[in-house]
Design brief:
The protein has about 700 residues and is an alpha/beta fold. The chain is built from 16 helices and 36 strands. The protein has 4 domains: about 210 residues, 3-Layer(bba) Sandwich (FAD/NAD(P)-binding domain), CATH 3.50.50.60; about 180 residues, FAD/NAD(P)-binding domain; about 140 residues, no CATH class; about 60 residues, BFD-like [2Fe-2S]-binding domain (Arc Repressor Mutant, subunit A, Orthogonal Bundle). A hairpin with a 6-residue loop joins strand 19 and strand 20.
C-alpha cells in the first residue's frame, strides 16, 4: 500500500521515527511511534473509517481534536476516537460498522481509589493563553496545575509554521508558532510550583466546585481555589450537500495531519472560508507540496489579513469572493466541489456554478469559544477566569497577552504581592485583538537609485517586526499604535534584508539598483524547500494582487542564519517592474481550472447533525410546524443526542431558525449535558481505562499539590 507522508518541508524537520506494524480491518499496515490511529490510517491512504448505522453513510475525520466522534473506530475491541488515541504495536483496528458491541468482560476490573487534588489555580488548556498565565503564576509562587488533552504543550501553536504578527516585545512577533510553543513550555517548566498533566481531559465542573478530569485513563478530582479556562475554540461548520463525506473537514484537522504528524492527507485541496485560518491553511498546504485548487469566501472581501490573502494569490491560488460552496461531490469520498456566486440575500445565483476536481474540502468558516467550563463554574460559584479564545476569538498573539493579564489577576486575587497591572497592558490586549483595518492604495516608492525596501503592506493590522529589526531605524510606524502602516523613511538602508526575512506576511521586498540601473536585483522572501528554486532558474514574478509581471532570472538564493526556514531569493528584473514585484508564482494556473460541467445541488438533504444524520429538511419542517425549543427538536429527531453532545449542530439549528424568520429570543436553547466530553462510566468507579499516569518526580512540600482520598 502506498504511503502518504511528507518527505520534505521548508520549515519542519522530517525525522525518521521508529516504525511498527498494526492491523486495519485485518490488513497489516505500518505506523510511526507517537502517531494517532487517524494519522496512521491517513498515512496509509485510508480515509473512510466506517459507516453510520442509520443510513450507511461513510465516516471519516472532521475535527481531529476530540470535539466530535465522527472518526470513531474499534481498537482492540473498544470504540475510541481515532484522532485522540495513540496507535500501538500490534493494535487491531476495525472500522465502525453499525452500532459498536459492548466488549465481553471477564471478572471484576481492579478499582483504584479516586484521588482529590487541591491546587490554588487549575488551568484547563496548555495553549498560548494557558501557558502565558502559568508563567505569571509561576513567578508569583501560586500552586498551579495545567491540564491538557494532548501529548505536548502549546495548543494550536504546535501547528503554526508561519511567523506571527503582533508586537515583538509583547508576543514574539516575527517568530514561528512552533518556536513560540517551545519558548513558553521551557519557561513554564522552570517553576516547581507549576505542574503539568498531559493526556488529561477535563470532563466537567461539579456543584461542589470540583473539576473532574480523566488523566491517561484514570479519573481524578481537582479542587481549585480558582479556575482559569483557556480551552481555545472549536471550528464552526456549514450545511451543504456532502458536508459529512470523508474528505470534508476543518482547518485544524488539516494542520494537525500536515504540520504535527507530517502526513500528506490530500493531493488537491479546496478551501471554504477567507478568514486567517483558511488563508493560513492554504499556505501551509502549498508548503507541504499540496495543490490548492481555490478558496471561496461568502463576503465581498476576505475577513483575514490582506497580506495572508496576497500570499496565496501570488503563489497561484484563485480566491472567489461573494461565492459559497454548493456541494461536496462523491460516492464514498470527496471527488469534486461545486461553488456558486451569491446575491445580496446570500442565495446562489443560477448559472454561476463552477465545479473543481479535488479530494478534500477544508471548511474554515470561523470559530466558537470552548467556554462550557467557564459558564458552569460561574453557575456553581467557583471563582473563574477565561483567557484566549475561550474568552474572545482573536489571534494567538492576543491570547498570549490576555493570558499574562489573567495570570496576574489570579495571583492578585489569591493575595500575592504582584503590584498593580499596568493599564497599558489592557490597551495592548485590545490592540492585539483588533480586526483588520481598511485597505489603502499600495505606496510604491519614487526612488530610482540605491537600495531600499518596498513595503507591499496596505492594510492596518497589529504588526511591527519590520520596525524592530531594522538596524538603522529606516522603517517606522507613526505614533505608538502598532496597527499603523510601516513606512520607509528614505535614507540609511544598507541592504541587510532583515526586514524582508522577518515579515510575517512576506510583504516586503528589497530593490537594489546600485550595480545595474536598468536590471536591478529584487530580494523576495520564499518559504518553500530549498531544492525547489536554484540560481539560474527563470521564474514568473507577480505583483501584490497576484497578477503576472513577467519572467525574471534567479541570481542568488540565501538562507539567513537568524531566520531559519526562510529563503531570500534574488531575481534580476527589468527596472519597469522591479518595484512592483511582490512574489514568485509556485503553482501553475492549470491546477486551478474548473471542470467543464458542474455538479448540481440537492436541496434539504444537507446534514445538520452529523452524529445522528438529521437533515436540514427534517428540522425546517418542525420549525415551520411551530417548534421553538431545541430540546423538543432533539427529542423528535435526535439532533444533538449524538456523541459530541451538540457541539456542532446546535449553532446550525439556530441558523435554520434565523433563515426561517424566527428570532432567537423566541427559541429555547438546548440543555447541555453535565459532562462535556464522553468518558467510560467505569472511570467514575475507579477503573483505569488507559495505561494510567506515570510516576511523578516528587516536589517539595511548599510547592506540591495537596491530595486526599475519597
Amino acid at each position: 500500500m502506498a504511503e502518504y507522508r511528507i518527505r520534505e518541508h521548508p520549515i519542519l524537520p522530517v525525522e525518521e521515527r521508529p516504525r511498527f506494524t498494526f492491523f486495519w480491518a485485518g490488513q497489516e499496515l505500518t505506523a510511526r511511534e507517537g502517531e494517532t490511529i487517524a494519522s496512521a490510517l491517513f498515512a496509509n491512504g485510508v480515509r473512510v473509517f466506517g459507516h453510520h448505522p442509520k443510513d450507511g453513510a461513510p465516516q471519516g475525520i472532521f475535527c481531529a481534536n476530540g470535539q466530535c466522534a465522527q472518526c470513531t473506530v474499534i481498537a482492540d475491541g473498544l470504540p475510541v476516537k481515532a484522532c485522540m488515541t495513540p496507535v500501538r504495536p500490534g493494535m487491531r483496528v476495525e472500522p465502525l460498522e453499525g452500532l459498536p458491541r459492548l466488549p465481553d468482560v471477564e471478572g471484576v476490573p481492579e478499582l483504584h481509589p479516586i484521588r482529590t487534588v487541591e491546587v490554588e489555580c487549575l488551568i484547563i488548556g496548555g495553549g498560548p493563553a494557558g501557558l502565558s498565565a502559568a508563567i505569571e503564576l509561576g513567578k508569583a509562587g501560586v500552586r498551579t496545575l495545567i491540564v491538557d488533552d494532548k501529548h505536548k504543550l502549546g495548543g494550536k501553536l504546535v501547528l503554526q509554521t508561519h511567523k506571527f504578527f503582533g508586537s515583538v516585545e509583547d508576543c514574539y512577533a516575527g517568530t514561528r508558532g512552533i518556536e513560540i510553543a517551545e519558548i513558553l513550555e521551557k519557561e513554564v517548566r522552570q517553576y516547581e510550583n507549576v505542574q503539568v498533566w498531559l493526556n488529561t481531559t477535563a470532563l466537567a465542573v461539579y456543584s461542589d466546585r470540583k473539576v473532574g478530569v480523566l488523566r491517561e485513563g484514570q479519573y481524578v478530582l481537582v479542587q481549585p481555589h480558582v479556575l482559569l479556562v483557556a480551552t481555545g475554540a472549536r471550528e464552526k461548520s456549514l450545511v451543504f450537500k456532502g458536508n459529512t463525506l470523508p474528505g470534508v473537514y476543518g482547518a485544524g484537522a488539516f494542520q494537525t495531519l500536515v504540520n504535527r504528524d507530517l502526513v500528506r492527507p490530500t493531493e488537491r485541496l479546496f478551501i471554504v472560508g477567507g478568514g486567517n485560518v483558511g488563508l493560513i491553511a492554504g499556505y501551509h498546504a502549498l508548503q507541504a507540496g499540496i495543490q490548492v485548487v481555490g478558496l471561496c469566501e461568502a463576503m465581498p472581501e476576505c475577513g483575514g489579513y490582506k497580506v495572508h490573502k496576497d500570499k496565496l494569490v501570488r503563489l497561484g491560488v484563485p480566491i472567489y469572493t461573494s461565492h459559497t460552496i454548493v456541494s461536496a461531490n462523491g460516492e464514498t469520498e470527496v471527488e469534486s466541489v461545486t461553488i456558486a456566486q451569491i446575491d445580496e440575500n446570500w442565495r446562489p445565483i443560477p448559472g454561476t456554478e463552477k465545479t473543481f476536481a479535488c479530494d478534500t474540502v477544508l471548511v474554515a468558516v470561523g470559530l466558537d469559544p470552548v467556554d462550557e467550563f467557564y459558564h458552569k463554574a460561574k453557575e456553581f460559584g467557583l471563582p473563574v477566569f477565561a483567557a484566549g479564545d475561550a474568552e474572545e476569538i482573536a489571534e494567538a498573539s492576543a491570547a498570549m497577552f490576555t493570558g499574562r493579564i489573567r495570570g496576574l489577576e489570579i495571583a492578585k486575587m489569591l493575595g500575592r504581592e504582584v503590584g498593580e497591572i499596568p493599564q497599558e497592558w489592557y490597551h495592548t490586549a485590545e490592540v492585539l485583538k483588533s480586526r483588520p483595518g481598511a485597505v489603502v492604495t499600495e505606496d510604491i516608492p519614487e526612488m530610482e537609485e540605491g537600495v531600499f525596501p518596498v513595503i507591499h503592506c496596505a492594510q492596518e493590522i497589529p504588526c511591527n517586526p519590520c520596525t524592530s529589526v531594522c538596524p538603522n531605524d529606516c522603517i517606522i510606524i507613526e505614533g505608538d499604535d502598532i496597527r499603523g502602516l510601516p513606512e520607509y523613511v528614505g535614507e540609511g538602508c544598507i541592504g541587510c534584508t532583515r526586514c524582508v526575512a522577518v515579515c510575517p506576511g512576506l510583504a516586503i521586498t528589497l530593490v537594489d539598483l546600485r550595480r545595474d540601473l536598468e536590471y536591478p536585483t529584487v530580494t523576495i522572501s520564499y518559504e518553500f524547500p530549498k531544492d525547489s528554486i536554484r540560481k539560474g532558474d527563470r521564474v514568473t514574478v507577480l505583483d501584490t494582487e497576484g497578477q503576472p509581471l513577467g519572467e525574471a532570472e534567479v541570481v542568488g538564493v540565501q538562507s539567513p542564519k537568524d531566520f531559519p526556514g526562510t529563503l531570500l531569493v534574488r531575481v534580476r528584473a527589468p527596472r519597469a517592474i522591479a518595484k512592483r514585484i511582490a512574489g514568485i508564482r509556485v503553482q501553475e494556473p492549470e491546477v486551478t481550472e474548473p471542470l467543464e460541467r458542474y455538479v448540481g445541488r440537492i436541496p434539504d438533504e444537507e446534514i445538520v447533525c452529523r452524529c445522528e444524520r438529521v437533515t436540514a429538511g427534517e428540522i425546517r419542517a418542525l420549525i415551520r410546524a411551530g417548534a421553538r425549543d431545541l430540546n423538543y427538536i432533539k427529542a423528535v429527531t435526535r439532533a444533538g443526542m449524538g456523541a459530541c453532545g451538540g457541539k456542532t449542530c446546535r449553532n446550525l439549528i439556530k441558523r435554520l431558525f434565523r433563515e426561517e424568520g424566527v428570532p432567537l429570543d423566541q427559541v429555547t436553547d438546548a440543555v447541555q449535558r453535565p459532562l462535556f466530553v464522553e468518558v467510560p462510566l467505569g472511570a467514575f468507579a475507579g477503573v483505569v481505562t488507559g495505561e494510567g499516569p506515570a510516576e511523578e518526580k516528587p516536589v517539595s512540600h511548599a510547592t506540591d499539590v495537596h491530595e486526599g482520598g475519597m
